[in-house]
Design a protein that fits this description.
By secondary structure, this protein is mainly α. Helices cover about 50% and strands about 5% of the residues.
């Protein structure tokens, strides 16, 4: 999932993460993404540059001191939707043979991981409606 090289025209895991963040936070700046992800600005700048060069992200005009506002293009939205579909299909394939209890435990642990909780929370009665931090799922 994260270590494989994607096909040409498909975002890497890092680019996918940046693209998804920009899609959910249109107008954000690279500095904000770096702060949210906890990485150096140069790391985000490299990912954003590839996304802009690929036509997936547009850099709006704005004061350079603050960085340029970023938004996803129509092509970027299409690429993101396909990348999401492929990643979900991979998760489905890897968990296909799991029991309902194993799937529920996996969802509970992912939820706990995402929240950063040091102790386990009770398993939700229904699986969360989101995948990762993607609220569109």
């Amino acid at each position: 999932m994260t270590g494989d090289r994607p096909d040409e025209g498909t975002p890497t895991f890092a680019q996918h993460s940046v693209l998804a963040y920009i899609a959910r936070n249109s107008g954000c700046r690279a500095t904000e993404i770096a702060d949210v992800f906890g990485v150096h600005r140069s790391t985000v700048s490299r990912q954003v540059r590839v996304c802009v060069e690929s036509g997936w992200v547009r850099s709006e005009s704005g004061p350079i001191r603050n960085g340029h506002p970023l938004c996803v293009t129509d092509a970027g939205a299409s690429v993101l939707a396909e990348a999401d579909r492929l990643r979900r299909a991979e998760v489905d394939e890897r968990t296909r043979s799991w029991s309902d209890d194993e799937t529920a435990e996996f969802a509970r642990l992912l939820h706990r991981f995402r929240l950063g909780s040091p102790t386990a929370s009770p398993a939700p009665s229904t699986p969360p409606e989101t995948i990762g931090d993607d609220t569109s799922a």
